[in-house]
Amino acid sequence: MNFATELLHGGLLPDKATGATTLPIYQTAAYNQDSAEDLEKIFALRKPGFVYSRISNPTTATFERRISDLERGAGAVAFSSGMAAISAAIMNVVEVGDEIVSSGSLFGGTSSFLSELENFGIKIRYVTNNRVENFADLVTNKTKLFYVETIGNPKLDVADIATLAELAHENNLPLFVDSTVTTPYLVRPLELGADVVIHSISKMINGGGNSIGGIVVVGKNFRWDMEKFPKLADFDSFGTLKYLARLRAKMLTNFGGCPSPFNIFLTNVGLDTLALRMERACQNALKLATFCAENKKVEVNYPGLKNNFYHALAEKQFGNHFGTILTLKFGTKEKAFGFLNSLRFALKASNIGDARTLAIHPASTIYLHSSETEKLNAGVTDDLVRVSVGIEDISDLLDDFSKTDSTLLK
Ligand SMILES: *Cc1c(COP(=O)(O)O)cnc(C)c1O
Prior knowledge:
Elements lengths: L2 H7 L26 H8 L14 H14 L3 E5 L2 H10 L7 E5 L4 H11 L4 E5 L4 H7 L4 E7 L11 H10 L4 E4 L4 H4 L9 E5 L13 E5 L23 H14 L5 H12 L1 H21 L4 E3 L9 H8 L6 E5 L3 H10 L4 E2 L9 E3 L11 H7 L5 E5 L5 H8 L9
Parallel strand pairs: 2-3, 2-4, 4-5, 5-6, 10-11
Antiparallel strand pairs: 1-7, 6-7, 8-9, 9-12, 11-12
The chain binds pyridoxal-5'-phosphate.
The site of pyridoxal-5'-phosphate (PLP) has 17 residues, from α4 and α5.
């Protein structure tokens, strides 16, 4: 079954109980069982079933299966936001004194969360430009995991997932990959050797910008050796699934970042059209980037451009798609603002992965409170505009972006 077909006929619907062709919303906190014995068995994980929606919910469970299947995972746990998913995924294994080796160009919320972890005695070692050799250099006997984004936002540097996974495994470490900007339509990191894949489902997976959510998908192969990961000891009976079992039983249940079934319903509707939207948005992004690159007054960064440093890797890894985000450098902040204010269709909003094109000046917004080093690592300069390309008619977008050639920029 090919991707777009699998999205719609992946085997989870129609609903077995009623034949409903869309995902039923189980808007309930708790679940009655036939007997006290049944409830005991479900609590002891000896019988499948639901007890309380902070721990699991049938609407959410169907969505988790759907994403896990699309990613070729062993299972998944959904959260109330991408940040809840990221923090749970990492805290599930790290302890005081541990270290994380991470790409230096991360989504702002993620780098802010990692600095917060420093307050809990966890050290983060940052690699620049996703260069594999630098990851190797930073490994110590305290390292617990490697953390990368498939395409760094807004730097747009591409991680070499297969090579990084190999290096991580040589050091008995798991590779964690945030694949929010690529979605399983462009790449399945688990198939390339990654061990944990995270998505903010608020972005392309939802597609309509109508809900916040996140998900962690876990692969089948990593062994999570007991000496290296003592926190997983209580879950040893789950074998290679012990990380997944602990993620739900401790991280979701104790920190409580569960998603609302209604938000999951909305996101699940969006998921149906993921292939169509990604195809169109990637095509639009390539056309816009090419168009802007022909204009010598603005510097364009997009992995789809042939002269881009990451082009060959992106082409190989993402099958001739290059994502929906591009950045433009105008030389000065005034010109960048002038461009933003001239746009007719692109909304000025701090989101990505919406069906609508969105544009923002990161230095004065998302990175307003970041240090100079953080901005440098993320590739954020004062003249930079980030564009998340939507699915509008390309001729209208080209018209809007022809303003990159206006007298304003001379
Ligand atoms: C938006 C985003 C997040 C955080 O997700 P929320 O749903 O906003 O909490 C994490 N990683 C990346 C790459 C993102 O774009």
